[in-house]
Write a structure and sequence with these properties.
The structure is a single chain. This protein is mainly alpha-helical and about 140 residues long. The protein has one domain. Helices cover about 55% and strands about 5% of the residues. It is globular.
């Protein structure tokens, strides 16, 4: 199934179409894996509001997502589910975990906007976060 414009209304359908978990035997398992998006969102919002974060838990959730949503799936899901103000932090985390697609073919239409996955969405505050991650 081809998705020309990924929105919050069809993101779960997109996620289900790329879901890759050979051991999955029910919709419940898919929902449990997808629930990690909610955890990531909460951790990123906590970081943005008070600059406190357990980076290892956040990175673990992202890596677990990448195990079942291959390729650009993780970035597409996170950019769609998260508010635009969090995209810089998401870009830093995806770059740090080598999950940020940087090719020109990886542009996606998300919520009616053409998104070019790149480090251009990273602000100076997010640059500090990137430097922190590199120090781990």
């Amino acid at each position: 199934m081809k998705f020309n414009n990924i929105t919050k209304d069809n993101i779960k359908l997109y996620a289900a179409s790329i879901y890759n978990n050979p051991g999955c035997s029910s919709l419940l398992e898919f929902e449990e894996d997808y629930l990690r998006v909610k955890y990531i969102k909460a951790l990123i919002n906590k970081y943005i509001s008070n600059k406190q974060i357990n980076v290892r838990i956040l990175i673990n959730h992202i890596i677990c997502l990448s195990n079942v949503f291959p390729g650009e799936g993780v970035s597409t899901i996170l950019y769609t589910e998260m508010e635009e103000g969090t995209w810089g932090v998401i870009s830093v985390l995806l770059f740090y975990t080598s999950l940020l697609p940087l090719s020109s073919e990886s542009n996606k239409t998300i919520n009616g906007k053409i998104i070019s996955f790149s480090l251009d969405t990273i602000s100076s505050a997010d640059q500090n976060f990137l430097e922190y991650l590199r120090g781990l």
